[in-house]
Amino acid sequence: MEFVRNEGQSLPSPAPSSSLTAITKSASSLPTPRHYPLKPGSQKEIAFINYVDSKILHINRRYAKKFSSGRDETDEEARGYDDFENAVEDLEHVLDAIWVSGTPTLQIPYLLSLAGLIAEFLPSFPFNEGPTMHLVDKMDQAFAILLSQRKDSTVPFASDASNQLVSVTDRVRIRSVIESTRVIAVEASTKDRASADTQDASEGFTESEYEELTSADSNVQSRNSLNMSISRMYERSLSILGDSLG
C-alpha cells in the first residue's frame, strides 16, 4: 500500500492572499518520496534514523551556540545561528530528507519534532517573513498530505477514526504545535514592529523623511499583509484537523 502521494497528487492549495503568493510562489515543492515505506528494522531504516537524529542534534547545537559567549566564528559547522534564515536552511534540508523516506511512521514524529523546533526558535530571532513562511508552507504541505491519508483507501475517510493514517493523539499534537506556532509568530512580529517604531521615533528625520517613513497607508498595508500571512500559517492542515477533530 502506498501511504504518500507523489508531487502530481499533492493537495490543492487554497486561494492565497497576494502577499502570501509573493512569498511562496518560488518556494520548492516537497521532494518526491519513495514509492514504498522503509522496512521496519532494516539497515536502510536504521541508517535513516541515525542520519536524521544526527542532523537534528546538529541543529540544536547550533541554536544553543547562538547564546554561547565562546562561539567559534571561523568554523561554519560550529557557529551558532546568526538569524532564522540560517536555521531554515538546515531545517528544510532535514524536512526534505524526512519526506523522501516515504515512511509515515517516521515522518509523523519527525515532522512534529521539526514543528516544535520552529516554534522554539522563532522568538529568538528578528521575525523574517520570507524564510519563515517558506518553511512553514512546506511543513503545512507535509502535514496536510499525511492527515488526508487513510490506511484502507476503500473505506470513506470520515467514517472511522481508526482508519486515519495519523492517530487521534498525533492529530491533537499537530494541532497544538500549529496553534502555538501561530501565536508565537504574532508575538514575534509584533515585538519587532514595536522595536522598529521605537527606533524610528528616536532617530532624527527631516519632516519629509518622517512623513515618508510613517505614511499611514503604507504602514497599514504592510502590517495587514504580514498579519494575513501569519493568519494563513498551516492553513491546509488546520482545515483538515477541523474536520477530523471537531
Please, could you describe this protein's structure?
This protein is an all-alpha fold. It has one domain. 62% of the residues lie in helices and 0% in strands. Helix 2 runs parallel beside helix 4, helix 3 runs parallel beside helix 5 and helix 4 packs antiparallel against helix 5. The chain is globular.
Topology:
Elements: H1 18-24, H2 43-65, H3 84-100, H4 104-121, H5 129-147, H6 168-202, H7 207-213, H8 216-231, H9 235-245
InterPro entries: Tfb6
Biased composition (Low complexity): 10-20
Biased composition (Polar residues): 21-31
What's this, in brief?
This protein is mainly alpha-helical and 246 residues long.
Keywords:
246 residues, mainly alpha, globular, disordered N terminus, Tfb6, Meiotic recombination protein DMC1
Largest sheet: none
What structural class do helix, strand and pairing data support?
Answer: mainly alpha
Instruction: Please estimate the helix content.
Output: 55-70%
Low-confidence stretches: 1-27, 197-201
Task: Give helix and strand order, one letter per element, not per position.
Answer: HHHHHHHHH
Query: In total, how many beta strands?
Result: 0
- The outline comes out as globular
Total of DSSP H or I helical runs spanning 4+ residues: 9
Q: Mean pLDDT, nearest integer?
A: 79
Please give the alpha-carbon distance between the first and last residues: 28 Å
How much of the sequence is in beta strands? under 5%
The rounded Rg comes to 20 Å
Give the domain tally. Answer: 1
Protein name: Meiotic recombination protein DMC1
InterPro entries: Tfb6 (IPR031349)
Biased composition (Polar residues): 21-31
Biased composition (Low complexity): 10-20
